[in-house]
Amino acid sequence: MNIKTRINARKVALSYIYQHCFFHHLLTQKSAIVEALFIDNIFQSQSEKFEAGKEMFMKKIKSYVDESFVDNVEPFVDEFFDEWQKEDIDFDYLVKVVPQVEKLESELKEQVNSYTQSFKYDDMDTIDQSLFLLGYAEWKTLWTPKEVVINELIELAKRYSDEWAPKLLNGIMHKIMTPTE
Length: 181
Description:
CATH superfamily: NusB-like
Helix content: over 70%
Number of domains: 1
Structural class: mainly alpha
């Protein structure tokens, strides 16, 4: 395993997971849909046009959310990571870890919620949820040592999230990954 290609693969995976979480949340946000249609000059007072626009918008988002990552990994990389050559990314990592995210999300939510008191998983920023999902899926799928996973999550959080995210990820992921006796 090449460390640089694995790090790049984690960045690709985080980007995909973030987009997936974002669009999944968007499906439940009526105000965001109204704003998106407003940008296209479609107003709620134009009920027929608004409903048709809303339905088309929802279909587009749903089709994106339902797409298979394995089938779309190369176009995704081409679209968003064109600064890297294909050999700079560990595609094997991507096709093993990313498809497991959706399967493991409810299990992760339960784990995170069991270790938090003042908030729940669903209250977290989308980027923090994405980081948790990435780390948990890698740990459960590839059995990457917890120290490696947590360290990589901290580095990604420092770069892409707020100042409190590294501590949050470190504390909760350490508890999740440490077997209880």
